[in-house]
Amino acid sequence: MTVSPSTELVRLRPRWPRRRGRWAAAWRRLARFARSQPTRRAALAVVLSAAAAGLVGLSYATADADPGRAHARHVAVTAPAAEPGGAAADRAASPRTGTAARPRPPRPDTVAVGWYAKRLGLPAGRVRALGSQRLGPGRLRVLVLADDHGRQPTAWIPLRHRHGGWTVAR
Fold first, then answer.
1. Bridge partners of 3?
2. 92-125: buried (b, 16+ CB within 10 Å) or exposed (e) per residue?
3. Beta-strand runs (E) in the chain
4. DSSP letter, residue 160
5. How does pLDDT run along the chain (170 residues), one tens digit per residue?
6. Can you tell me the distance from the alpha carbon of 73 to that of 67, in angstroms, rounded to the nearest whole number?
């Protein structure tokens, strides 16, 4: 009901005609229900929990993203001046210090694939890592699958992290 600016209550005609029917009555009940404090709190809780679920899902999705598809940083990399074919020409300069970068130690899945391929007498291209599982600090096991002419043997390869990198713990 709308009230006139005078002191006495005079019913004015509403701006829009009142809705009739079941849907209109349900809409009015919903609008009246949404004005209560507990309803607003519940709606806020739903929105915040949906946002938190979205953030968790996004963090899990980006954690498993392929690092090869990531955008490369545009940093000027200069190779050290040396004669062609020298050892210094093979290594790129570090973008931060300008000195030659150290070679990276092999990844755990690469170590497990190489060890299992050597054990079965297969080329490393016919063995691949399927997954890994942390067993503790400095301990890991990698599941590898070999393609041995129709057979597909699998194995868990336990690894330990030592000073020089990952090694097979057998």
1. 11
2. ebeeeeeebeeeeeeebbebbbbbbbeebebeee
3. 127-136, 139-146, 154-162, 165-168
4. E
5. 555 566 666 666 666 655 578 888 888 887 887 888 888 888 889 999 999 999 998 888 777 665 555 555 554 444 444 445 544 444 555 566 667 777 777 889 999 999 999 999 999 899 999 999 998 888 999 999 998 888 888 999 999 998 878 889 87
6. 13
